[in-house]
Write a structure and sequence with these properties.
Layout (H helix, E strand, L loop, with lengths): L13 H9 L4 E5 L3 H9 L4 E4 L3 H4 L11 H14 L4 E5 L9 H13 L5 E3 L5 H11 L4 E6 L5 H4 L9 H17 L3 E5 L3 H10 L4 E4 L7 E4 L1 H4 L17 H18 L13 H9 L1
Parallel strand pairs: 1-2, 1-8, 2-3, 3-4, 4-5, 5-6, 6-7, 7-8
């Protein structure tokens, strides 16, 4: 793919994540959906940049993650790849891209790696997803698992709510995470599960756990770009910490721009291109 940038020799390898777990050095991850966010995340030292299907909601304006397509995920992934030189890039496999069959899952995973430039893909759930994970890994594409609250199954789960809050449900999530490791996944996202459950999983697995609403015992943490930066609107999950209020700053800047244009204060002389006096006279005389 000639339009994708060369990767620096220092780009984060999958093996490095295991080394971070063994060293008990927390792993950092954030979602990104375009070139600027990929570049900024990489420059900040983020270990894993996740091109999340959450883009369906944060970027495309849908009310769930389900409508985003493979074409859209490939486009977003390619944009992020252009901005990243060091971090590991993981692309979400969108709804419908892996649920049908192992063959479909492999074809779509290869597309995200080959056409999108992703280093790895992420799939949600266990059960049938175990077979999909094995097939994708056998095809040469690394896989990150995802258990707990899996947004692609949100209707079956009864909405966006914490999972594993009963002993039976907690044991089921532990078993799913263990099974994903056995299937060959290099890491597992734990979303919206009680901290004791995440701690049990993290202690049981040799691969890293990446938490989002799963407490501090996970090997790493991930947040959604728009939530972290204060760009999201509406209700935020309990687990979100906003590190900035970029949305407010953007709106204030746009309001100032509108006011300047309407008042005739922009553009000013310094914002325009000059023309030599003699050329201007010649232009006006003809």
């Amino acid at each position: 793919m000639p339009d994708l940038p060369p990767v620096d020799a220092g780009k984060r390898a999958l093996s490095a994540l295991g080394e971070l777990k063994r060293a008990r050095q927390p792993i950092t991850s954030v979602t990104a959906y375009d070139y600027p966010s990929g570049r900024l995340a990489d420059g900040a030292g983020i270990d894993i940049v996740l091109v999340g299907d959450s883009a369906a909601m944060t970027v495309l304006g849908y009310d769930s993650t389900l409508p985003i397509t493979m074409d859209e995920m490939v486009t977003l992934t390619r944009a992020v790849v252009r901005g990243v030189r060091r971090a590991l890039i993981v692309a979400d496999m969108p709804f419908g891209s892996f649920q049908v069959s192992d063959e479909t899952a492999v074809a779509n995973a290869i597309r995200l790696a080959r056409d999108g430039g992703a280093d790895a893909v992420k799939i949600e759930g266990a059960g049938p997803s175990l077979s999909r994970a094995r097939a994708i890994i056998d095809a040469g594409v690394p896989v990150m698992g995802h258990v707990g609250l899996t947004p692609q199954s949100v209707t079956q789960l009864g909405g966006y709510r914490a999972q594993g809050r009963t002993a039976e449900a907690a044991h089921r999530i532990v078993d799913e995470a263990v099974a994903l490791e056995a299937a060959g996944c290099f890491a597992v996202v734990l979303e919206a599960v009680p901290a004791p459950v995440a701690a049990r999983i993290t202690g049981a697995l040799h691969i890293p756990t990446i938490g989002i609403g799963a407490g501090a015992s996970c090997d790493g943490q991930v947040l959604v770009w728009h939530d972290l930066l204060g760009i999201s609107t509406g209700h935020l999950p309990r687990f979100v910490k906003q590190y900035a209020r970029i949305g407010e700053a953007i709106e204030a800047a746009l309001r100032a721009y509108v006011a300047d244009v309407r008042a005739g204060a922009f553009p000013a002389v310094e914002h325009t291109y000059p023309m030599a006096d003699d050329e201007r006279r010649r232009f006006e005389e003809t």
